[in-house]
Structures are given as structure tokens and as C-alpha cells.
Specification:
Layout: H1 2-36, H2 39-70, H3 74-107, H4 119-139, H5 142-172, H6 177-209
InterPro entries: PhoU, PhoU-like_sf, PhoU_dom
Protein name: Phosphate-specific transport system accessory protein PhoU
Organism: Tunturiibacter lichenicola
């Protein structure tokens, strides 16, 4: 009976990793669309969203069924609760990708100009946070998850820098306001991706150590 239960946990983990791959691909595509201004890539992001949403519901149902039928305890219970929360964060990463694609599509109506913000670099860092947090989940590595938390400050600093640079540009060159505002929102979307990666890392720590470190709490 317990063998079947642990096989179900493995199946749940595998399905979550499929979800993670889809969310990560959506972010990569949205940034590629920004970099190249290729609006056909935006359409790929939009078309993928229903599948991500459907998978989120399937994973939630699998997790709820396991809670109801198996009544797990201790680390198994924490694992399932963490999967439910990570699942929600991955769906929201997919939402951020859609938001970015919407902004890129709006920017397509204007000339492609150089803006004083390195969106690809910010995307690279926030995406690395997502990958690292998921690697921590795969390996059950709380120390690796902790390293993700420290990266969040860098993402926040880059987003703040983008805000000041683009705000200054709007004051100096009001005619560039549409492009600047869209880039500003994309920067904010990527900062939110970093936040979701932080949430995932915190859930890994909760699963492995039984410690709730959300909101800077260290109490188990």
C-alpha cells in the first residue's frame, strides 16, 4: 500500500516538473519576443497559457486526492502541501510571461529603440532563480533553496534601476513614453517572476526542514 502511495508522490513530482518546463519555456519565449520584436513568438506564449492552466488544475486535483485518500503525515504531508503552493507559483510565472507578451505586442506599434534598461539580463537572472529553485525541489536541497533567496535582492535592485532610468527618460523625451512604460511593466513582470522563484525556494525549505521561512520567519 505504501509502495503505491510513494509511486503516486513520484507521479505528482513528475507532473509538477512538466508544469515547470512549460512555465519556464513561456518566459523564455516572451523575452525572445521582446529581444527580436517577433510578434509571432507572442502568439506561442498566448496559445500555451490554456495548457498551463489545465495542468495546474490536474496537479491540484492529484494532490487533493492524495491528501483525502492517504492522509499523509510529517514530510509526506509537507511535500504535498509544497507541491500545491509551487504549482500555483508556476501558473503565475506563466501569467507573467503572457503579460510580457502583451506588452511586447503593444511595443510592436512603435519604432524599436534602445532603452536604458537591460531586460534580457534581468530575465536571465529571474529565470535562473526559477531554475535553481526547481533544482532544489528536484534534489530536496534546502541549502540550494536558501541561495535562491539571496538572489532576490539583485533582481529587486535591477528593477529599481530600470524604474529610475525609464522614469528619467520619460521626463527627458516624452515622445518615448509608450515604449518606456511598456519596458517598465516588463521589468516589473520579471521582478514578480523572481518573487515566485523565492516562494518556490521557501516551499522547498518548508518541505525538507519543516521550517516556515516566509516573511523572514525562521521558526519551524
Amino acid at each position: 500500500m505504501r509502495v503505491k502511495f510513494h509511486q503516486s508522490l513520484d507521479d505528482l513530482k513528475e507532473k509538477l516538473l512538466v508544469m515547470a518546463g512549460m512555465a519556464e519555456q513561456a518566459i523564455q519565449r516572451s523575452i525572445e519576443a521582446y529581444r527580436t520584436r517577433d510578434l509571432s513568438i507572442c502568439e506561442l506564449v498566448f496559445r500555451a497559457e490554456p495548457s498551463i492552466n489545465r495542468l495546474e488544475r490536474e496537479i491540484d486535483q492529484m494532490a487533493l486526492d492524495l491528501l483525502a485518500m492517504e492522509q499523509p503525515m510529517a514530510i509526506d504531508l509537507r511535500f504535498i502541501l509544497s507541491v500545491i503552493r509551487i504549482n500555483a507559483d508556476l501558473e503565475r510565472v506563466g501569467d507573467q510571461a503572457v503579460n510580457i507578451a502583451v506588452r511586447v505586442r503593444e511595443m510592436g506599434a512603435f519604432a524599436n529603440i534602445d532603452l536604458p534598461v537591460d531586460i534580457p539580463k534581468l530575465a536571465s537572472l529571474s529565470s535562473a532563480m526559477v531554475r535553481k529553485s526547481l533544482q532544489a525541489f528536484i534534489e530536496g536541497d534546502a541549502e540550494l533553496a536558501e541561495s535562491v533567496l539571496r538572489l532576490d535582492d539583485q533582481v529587486d535592485e535591477m528593477n529599481d534601476a530600470a524604474f529610475y532610468a525609464l522614469s528619467s527618460l520619460i521626463k527627458e523625451k516624452p515622445e518615448l513614453t509608450p515604449q518606456s512604460l511598456n519596458a517598465l511593466i516588463i521589468s516589473r513582470n520579471l521582478e514578480r517572476v523572481g518573487d515566485h522563484a523565492t516562494n518556490i525556494a521557501e516551499d522547498v525549505i518548508f518541505w525538507v526542514r519543516g521550517a516556515d521561512v516566509r516573511h523572514n520567519s525562521t521558526a519551524p
